[in-house]
């Protein structure tokens, strides 16, 4: 299994964003996580297509767009045009989940499906053939820097088990409250794509990225 670090720029210092992104890329973070919030599906508003488009030119990392947006199918094409490589939508935000996932594929991107902490793991079962990745939120979406919800570990295990039983090899991404101190627990539970905002950008992004990559090496 491939272990991937996806630093979330939500926690970056935007006065030196390009430099901070470069430090994560040079030290092994293969993806960059881009949190889009619409003030409707989640209470906060973050950033959107123009910011992604600008960053696209600054990095070769896989651009992982996490859309915390109501009825996200409306924006799939725009994110592809801005330079996203993968788009993840929330099951709870889609009037027609399958249509949103199909649209992501039709736009030539990898499709991810995310569930909030209160949504049971079983809800994703019917969509496993339609995605490349399941994103398990380990905090209530909307803000960075929150505390990891411990019950998420059981959900990660359940989804990894479902994926195995179907003979699939999907990425399982975890997002929210993941730090160097608890990342082994989520890896042990079956996650392989780790989103980390505060844990990468608070402090030294170079050293923090290196430390995550060292832990991943011990799993490969
Ligand atoms: O989707 C998100 C919030 O809704 C963020 O990706 C997540 O919170 C990452 O931040 P941190 O690692 O600081 O918890
Ligand atoms: Fe996110």
TrEMBL record:
A divalent metal cation binds at residues 33, 35, 66, 175. One of its GO terms (molecular function) is D-ribulose-phosphate 3-epimerase activity. Its EC number is 5.1.3.1. Keywords: Carbohydrate metabolism, Isomerase, Metal-binding. SUPFAM superfamilies: Ribulose-phoshate binding barrel. It catalyses: D-ribulose 5-phosphate = D-xylulose 5-phosphate. Pathway: Carbohydrate degradation. It comes from the Bacteria. InterPro entries: Aldolase_TIM, Ribul_P_3_epim, Ribul_P_3_epim-like, RibuloseP-bd_barrel. Substrate binds at residues 8, 66, 142-145, 175-177, 197-198. Its cofactor is Co(2+); Fe(2+); Zn(2+); a divalent metal cation. This is Ribulose-phosphate 3-epimerase. The lineage of its organism: Bacteria, Bacillati, Bacillota, Clostridia, Lachnospirales.
